[in-house]
Structure formats: C-alpha cells, structure tokens
Specification:
This protein is of the alpha+beta class. Helices cover 55% and strands 10% of the residues.
C-alpha cells in the first residue's frame, strides 16, 4: 500500500481523488463510490431500520416522561448520548460500505478504498464501546433508582464498574494492538507490529456477553416480587425476551469475529459489522422499554365494566366491616373481626349502630378519571344510626 494512499482521509479532496485515479490498479473497482454487495446492502438496510426504531423508542421515552411528569435524570442523558453515538456508528458503517467497499474482497478494491475502510473500522471501535457502554450504564442507573435495596445497590455498582472496565478494554486494545497507530490502516508502516487481533477482539466480545447477561439478570429477583398485574407481567416478560436478543447478537458477533481473515478484512468483516450494529441498536430499544408504562397503558387498557366485581388479590382488596356500640366512654381500636365495637364518646345513653364499608383497590374508570387507570382508590361508605332507648335521657 503506497504512502500516498496511507495519507488519504476517509473523505478525500478533489486533488487526492485525481491523483489516486491516475495510479489506480487495472481490473479493480475505480469509482469513488462502491456498488454495495448483498452483505453491504444488508448493513445499509439494517442501519436505516435501526435508526428509525431507536428514534421512535427514544421519542416514546420522552413522551412517557412528560406524561409521568418526571424530571430528566442522569440515565436519560446517558441514553441520549448513546443514541447520538449510535447514529455516528451507523454513519461509519455506511462509509465502510459506500466508500470503503465493505462486502467486496480486498482484491477487488483500490488501495484508497482499503485505507478508508480501515480508518473507518478503527474509529468504529470507539463508537461501539462508547454507545453500548452508555446504554448499559443508563439501564443500571435506572435499576438503582427503582430498587433501593442494600444488596442490589452493591451489585449494581459492581456491574457499573464491570461495564466501565469493558469500555476501557475496548479502547486500550484498539489503541495498543498495533504500533504505531497508523499501522491500523497502513500495513507498510516502517517498524510496524501488531498483536493477535482475532484473539483480542474476541476477548472483547466474550466479556461483553458476560456483562450483558449480568445486567439482564440483575433486576429479575426484584421484579418478580413486586406482584405486578398480569398485563405488566406479560410486558416484563416481553422486555426480557427482547433483551435476550442483545445477548444473541453478541454471541453471533463473537462467532463472526473468530471467522475474520485479516488479509481479506473487507469481505470477512461484513457480518460482524452487521451484528455489532444490531446489538447496539436493540440494546437502546430495550433500555427504553421499562419507562414506557404510559404507552403500555394506552395499548393494553384495563377493560372492566362499572358493575364488575372487585376481586381480592395482591393489588385489589375488598374489606367490609360492621361496627356497633352501646357504650359511652370513648373510642376503641378497630379489630380485624367482621363485627367490631366502637365507643361513640359523649353520646350518653344513646345507642348507635354504624355500618362502614371500606373498599380499597382499583375502582372501575369513570368519565371523570384521567387516562391512568392504574391509580389505586379507597372508597369509604358510612352510615350511622342513632336511637334513644326507652326511659333513658
């Protein structure tokens, strides 16, 4: 690879393009833009789809926060940063395909194509670590704000440290695996040395899988103790299932990394590029899902008629008490019996009977209610009958 092409930027100037075209190798692609192959088209199409989906889920996150009247917290800012970096990552993938020839064999590309491709791959590693790492930390902070339990807080902080260590691992490997750094895109640099790139990047992917499994399992013991309604249990199970996809994409990415031939990286790295972007995009979508309860309430409304019977469950309680008193020295504490005595203070010789019905639970919605049908209501209906015994003052 010539020194001229090694100094070309990813987006070259007009003079550099003219000089490169003058010395182009015959029989190879000579156009500035490279026609995408099937693998290259998959990268572009999946990138566009992931941009649309992450934009939609991010919007729904903001909408849900506004409906819940919750302040914008640190985890929300980290998620926004992750989305911005993810868009930069997808843009880098487009550059790799359209300007670097990703999906073609090295033998089909000009030297300047390969320089652009290798520079884009070098930059992409930082974007991948930063975007996915911020998503992970954002999710853990959200868990820490939700579950204020001592053991859980300790485990969550340890997982954040684990995530930061993984981000540093990616960064250091990318910076140190080849020396000098320009060797990453110019293999003819004098005195260049490179370590075992396949083993190094495979270790990054393996640690990433372990990290994601830990984060995925972290809140499960707490979630299933909450006694959620069946609809929220279904939503939680779906979120967990989608979260497993990030681990699956990470595992596929690890397998594809082990198949890369670094002497033909433009062709053999196409699949790992595809699954790496998918892993990050799905992680962003999953990180937004736990905050979308207002959306789920709209999509999964609780259908109950006004005459429906309120059943006794963990979240719905029906309690009826009848209280009767014939004394006059003051109030007594309510007991757990169906019939309870209540002293009515200075009512003298008056005899009182009080029937009180207390219903705590979720009242069927009326036209005066707001959209949130999950608000717990307490309805108390009381009737007191006072009578004077014959012959008493």
């Amino acid at each position: 690879m010539s020194e001229l092409y090694a100094r070309l930027s990813i987006l070259s100037t007009y003079d550099e393009r003219v000089a490169a075209a003058a010395t182009a190798t015959p029989g190879r692609i000579e156009t500035e833009l490279v026609q995408p192959t099937t693998d290259g088209s998959k990268i572009i199409v999946s990138g566009v789809v992931l941009i649309l989906l992450t934009a939609l889920w991010t919007y729904l996150r903001f909408w849900s926060l506004r409906k819940a009247r919750r302040a914008f917290l640190m985890e929300d800012w980290l998620n926004v940063g992750a989305v911005v970096l993810f868009y930069a990552l997808v843009a880098t993938d487009f550059i790799m395909v359209l300007l670097g020839g990703m999906g073609h064999h090295d033998s089909e590309l000009q030297d300047w194509h390969l320089v652009r491709l290798l520079k884009a791959i070098f930059a992409r590693q930082f974007l991948y670590a930063a975007s996915l790492g911020l998503v992970k930390i954002s999710v853990i902070l959200m868990f820490m704000r939700t579950f204020l339990v001592g053991r859980f807080m300790f485990a969550a902080k340890a997982t954040i440290a684990f995530t930061v260590a993984w981000m540093l691992q990616v960064t250091l490997i990318n910076l140190l695996i080849c020396q000098p750094i320009s060797t990453n895109w110019n293999l003819q640099t004098a005195g260049a040395t490179c370590g075992n790139q396949r083993a190094a990047f495979a270790s990054v992917s393996a640690v990433d899988i372990v990290n994601q499994v830990v984060i995925l399992m972290l809140p499960l013991p707490m979630v299933w103790r909450l006694g959620l309604e069946i609809r929220y249990r279904i939503v939680t199970a779906c979120i967990f299932t989608v979260g497993i996809l990030t681990v699956v994409f990470g595992a596929i990415n690890l397998y594809m990394l082990l198949q890369i031939d670094f002497s033909d990286v433009s062709y053999t790295a196409a699949q790992t590029t595809l699954y790496g972007a998918s892993e990050t995009g799905v992680a962003i979508i999953v990180s937004n899902c736990p905050l979308l309860r207002p959306v789920f309430d709209r999509l999964l409304p609780k259908c109950r008629s006004e005459s429906a019977t309120w059943r006794e469950k963990s979240t719905d309680m029906v309690l009826s008490r009848k209280r009767k008193s014939t004394k006059s020295s003051g109030f007594t504490q309510m007991k757990g019996e169906s019939q309870e005595d209540l002293e009515l203070g200075n009512m003298g010789a008056h005899r009182a009977r009080r029937n009180t019905h207390i219903t705590a639970g979720k009242r069927p919605m009326s036209i005066d209610d707001d959209d949130d049908c999950s608000v717990h209501r307490i309805v108390v209906t009381s009737e007191t009958i006072v009578s004077r015994d014959k012959g008493e003052l």
